[in-house]
Amino acid sequence: MKFNKTLTTLSTLMLALSFSASTLVSAEDTSPKTSTANTTLTFDDTGGDSQITLDTVPYFDFGTQMITGKPITVADIVGDPLLQVTNRGGAAGWGVTVAISEFADVTTPTTKLVGPVLTFTAATPADNSGGGANTAVAATGVINDAAKSVFYAPAGAGIGINTDEITAKLEIPANNVAGEYKAELTWTLTDVPNPLPQP
């Protein structure tokens, strides 16, 4: 019985060695193999056909100011400064312009503010794309009735969600009468980059 057990053990060991040697000899093709990783990106068109959307535009409230016979300069008090553009994968760039109407009295629209100056100061735009080096450009300057570029992305940039917070300042000359005045800001998104205004 002892002899049979020994033979059985040796046979098992020999089989294992034979199998291992066979594996090594069969490894003839050692060249690297390649495979692929695929994905397809498409834009969400549930909100329309455009890849680029103007999501949020600022509004400004300069509050109630006391007339003293001197010029008044006031910063935005209770408005919302957020300007947001979402680009769902368009590579051509985009731009946002803004123009302002006259400040007209709410009760008597024919009465206008004389010589008001609205100035924007842009913050550093935030890039929420997660990719880096993708940030749009924001402009600082006086806003009037001619469309002026205030937010801009050159080709290849501004992809993802782009936000800017605009600080507004209103200067009112002394030669104005009391009243509640309102102006309309028109924000326009284009799918081509806009040159920024000169300082």
Strand and helix map with partners:
Blueprint: H1 2-26, E1 52-56, E2 72-75, E3 82-87, E4 94-100, E5 104-105, E6 117-122, E7 126-127, E8 137-138, E9 141-143, E10 148-153, E11 160-172, E12 181-182, E13 185-190
Antiparallel strand pairs: 1-3, 2-11, 3-11, 4-10, 4-13, 5-12, 6-9, 6-11, 7-11, 8-10
Question: Can you describe what's shown?
Answer:
It is a single chain. This protein has 199 residues and is mainly beta. It has one helix at 2-26; strands spanning 52-56, 72-75, 82-87, 94-100, 104-105, 117-122, 126-127, 137-138, 141-143, 148-153, 160-172, 181-182, 185-190. It contains 1 helix and 13 strands; from the N terminus they run αβββββββββββββ. The strands form 3 sheets. Strands 1, 2, 3, 6, 7, 9 and 11 form a 7-stranded antiparallel beta sheet that branches. Mean pLDDT is 75; it is low at 1-25.
> What's the mean pLDDT score?
75
The ordered string of helix (H) and strand (E) elements is HEEEEEEEEEEEEE
Work out the radius of gyration: 34 Å
Assembly status: single chain
The portion of residues assigned to helices is: 10-25%
